Amino acid sequence: MTSNGQNKKTIADCLMAGSEQLRNAGIDNSRLDVRLLLADAISKETSYLFGYPEKILSDEESSCFQMMLDKRIKREPVSKIIGRKEFWSLNFKVTRDTLDPRPDSETLIEAVLENVTDKARQIQILDLGTGTGCLLLALLSEYRAAQGLGIDISDKALAVAEENAVSLGLSSRAVFLAGNWCEGLEPGWDIIISNPPYIGSDEKNALAPEVLNYDPSMALFAENNGMQDYQTLIPQAAAILNVEGLLVIEAGQGQADDINALMFDAGLIVSPPKKDLGGIARACVGRKSI
After folding, report:
1. Is 276 exposed, middle or buried (0-12, 13-18, 19+ CB in 10 A)?
2. With the C-alpha atoms ordered 110, 121, 141, 189, is the resulting torsion angle positive or negative?
3. I need a labelling partner for 255 at 20 to 30 A (CA). Which of 47, 67, 132, 274 fits?
4. Helix, strand, coil share of the chain (percent; to 5)
5. Do the beta carbons of residue 149 and residue 184 sit within 8 Å?
6. Which helix (H) or strand (E) holds 281?
7. Smallest Cα–Cα separation from 218: which of 134, 94, 129, 283?
């Protein structure tokens, strides 16, 4: 506090009051959320909050912070409020036109790294339903000689992916094009990766408001109990993989067996799926032998 401004708030005040507001709204991880929001409101890293708890916010910063809290109370995700999300230790721009990158999807990156151990190879990577570009760009950050193509049906999502490629210094090795899965693509891919829509329309009511109300529905829902896009893209992807090429696809809970069957039917050698930190079979892996 200051002598000439009883309404002035310090970082410590904001952390305490903001956490209480979010907690009272029934939001989990309220302390983490309020730290991320406050750091963004004052244009600092979160570490700054711990080093300068006595720092007094300006009126503009206080108003910005409260506006962010109000949005979060309405269940808008932190990532959509601040416009970015970390994935694979990289920062990605996100908008309402893109699916939020999620920690579960990092399992796909781990699965690729386990199966393609030579990071110096000049490989061609295809990302189907690229969204923010997080899967493709994370792989390009690991495979320094690789080139990649991201496909999405949404022009607005592609614009976000292109921005992310530029901000991460990967635009020289990444191209983003509008398309419908593998339609029109030529063979010649060493790695194909995808996180397609896989939530059945009858599961909408089970989703958190942060997902249902703020992620694009076209990136979430698929017909046939969430299996329709797998049924389309797996045979297409298998047809354009190089020999020894790898297909890695994200699975929803309980879908891995059906996805593996589709991969087998497409002529791929199927490996056991890789589980995420929650123990769910998340990354389905198939390799082309002939």
Report:
1. buried
2. negative
3. 132
4. 45, 20, 35
5. no
6. strand 281-288
7. 129
Q: How far is CA 250 from CA 53, 170, 283, in A?
A: 41, 23, 5
Which of 117, 137, 142 has the alpha carbon at shortest distance from 127?
A: 137
Question: What is the rounded distance in angstroms from the CA atom of residue 204 to the CA atom of residue 200?
Answer: 7
Closest by CA to 85, choosing from 94, 75, 98, 95, is 94
What is the pTM for the complete model shown? 0.91
Q: Could you tell me the two tokens for 210?
A: 């942060």
d(CA 119, CA 290) in angstroms, rounded, equals 23
What distances in angstroms separate CA 128 from CA 122, 151, 179, 203, 247, one per listed residue?
20, 5, 9, 23, 11
Q: Retrieve residue 271's tokens.
A: 């490996």
